[in-house]
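Notes from hallway chat w/ T.B., transcribed later so I don't forget. T.B. wanted the structure written out for a chain they're using in a teaching module, and asked if we could keep both sequence and C-alpha cells in one place. Agreed to drop them here.
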Amino acid sequence: MFPLVRLIIPFVLGLVGANCLLSYVALPTEVLFPILCLSACLLVVLEMRKVKLPHTSSAFGIATYLFTFLFAFTLFAYRYQRLAESVPSDEQAIRASVISLPVEKAKSYMVKVKSEEGTCILVYLAKEERAKALQMDDQLVLVPKYVNPTAPHLQTDLFSHTYQSYLFYSGTSATCYVPKRNWQTLSADSSKSSWSFRSLQQAMHRTYERAGLTGETGAIIEAMTIGNRTKLTKQQRQEFGNAGISHILALSGFHLNTFLVVLNLFLFVLPISIRTRRIVALCALLPIIWLYTAIAGFPPSLVRASTMASILQVLLVIGREYHLLNTLCLTAILMLCWNPLQLMNVGFQLSFASMLGIALIIPVLMEFDEVKEMYKLSFLNKGNLILRFLVLIVVITLVCTLSTFPLVAYYFGQVPLLSLFSNVFATLLAYGIMFFSVLFWLFSFWHGAQTLIASILNLLAKGMETLTSFISSIPHSTLSFRPTILEVILLYVAIVSLFLYLKKRTARPVIVLLATIILFSISRIVGNLFTLS
C-alpha cells in the first residue's frame, strides 16, 4: 500500500552515508558512476529473470534497495563536491548579481550574490551608502578578501551544527569580506539586463511600503506573505523563537493552504460541474502556486507544500486515491533528486518531520475511543465549526510540536514550553494576515479598499507582535536543552515506541521505550560528566 515508504529508506540512507563519508574523505564521483551502472544492469537482469524464476524476486528487491542506495550516494557526492570546489580565490575579481537585499550588521552590510559560474557567496561589504542602496539583480564586480569556505569537511566536528554548515547545505559555498574600494556596480543598462522572480518580490515589497506597511509590523507581513525575512530584527526572531511560533514566519503548507482556500472560493461560484472545476483548478491554480513559490525564493517548506498540492490536484483530476504518506515520500524523493543537499537543511527536516507526524500520529489519535466520544459531544457537532476548528488547531499543534521538538532542541538549543498556548492564538492571527493579504493584492486596482485592508493587516501584525512579546517575556517560557545527535535518535525512538504501544497495546513497545529512556539518561549523565571535567 505504501511502496514509496520502502523506497525512500535506502534513498535517505545513501544521502546520509555520502555526507558522513565525504566529511572525512574526498571520494571522486568517477569511481561511483561505474558501480552505479553495474547495479543498474544487475537490476535489469533480475527483472527479466523474475518472470521465469519467481524465487529471484527477493534478490530483485535487494538489488532495488542497493541501486537506490548507490544512486542517492552518487547524487549527493556529485552535488557536494561540485559546491565545495566552487570557492572563489582571495583577491580574484569576480562578476556577480545580487540575490538578496542588504542586511545591516555592526560594521558591514551582508548581501548574498551569485557569480557568473552559478556559485552563491555571502558577501560582507564595508558599511557605506552604496552598499545600503543595492537592489535585487544589481550586477557587481568585486574582489573578495578573507574567503572562508563553508564545506563541512573543512570543519572539525562532523555532527556539530554551525552557521557555516547551514550556509553550505543552503547552497552557499563561501563567505568573504569586501572593502570599500574592492567593488563597484556596473552600469544601469548592464545591471538591469536580466529579470528574475526576486525583482518581483522586491516590487511587492515596495507596494507594501507605499501602503504604509513598514517597520516591525511590515516585516512580519512580508515574511508571512512573500517570504522576505531580511527586514526582521534580531529581537523579533528571538521573540518568535521563545514563543515557539517561529514557523509562522517560514512559508509552508499552512500559508499555501490559506492562500488556496481564498482562490478556491472564486471557483466555487462558477456554474460548472465538479470535474470541470477540478480541471480548471489544475490549469489555473498550479501556475499560481509555483509563481508564488518562485517569488518567495523556493524555500524547502514551501516547495514541499507546493509539490504535494500539485500532486493532489493531478490525482483529483484523474480520479485516483490520495495517500498522504505516499505523497510525502514522493515529494521528498523529487526534492532530494533536484538538490540532495537539502536533506541537511534544517527547514527541510522540520517541514517533513511535522508532516510525518501529522500523517502517522493523528490517525492513531483518531482511533482512541476518548477522541471519538469527544467529537460526538454537542458543542463539537458539525454545526459548531469554530470550536471544531480550534480543537483541530490544538491537535495539529500538539502533534507538530511533538514530532519536531528533538530537532528544534538540537539546532536551536531550547524548547518553548508555552508553544501550545501561543500557537492557538498565533494561528488565528496568521489566518487573518494571510486572508487579508490575498485581498490586498486582489484589490490592488482600488486604492481605497487596499488602504483599508492595509490598516487591518497592520492591526493583525501588531497583535502578533504583542503576543510574541508577551509570551517571550514570561519567566521560564523556554527550556535550555541541546541534545546530541545520538540523543535526538533516542528521542524519536521513544516517540515512535509510545505511539506503537498506544496503537497495539503490546509489551514490546514498552520495553523499547524503557530501554530508550535508560540509554538517554546514561547519555546525559556521561555528557554532563565530560562537561564538568
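Follow-up for T.B.: Residues 485-532 form one domain. Might be a good example for the class.
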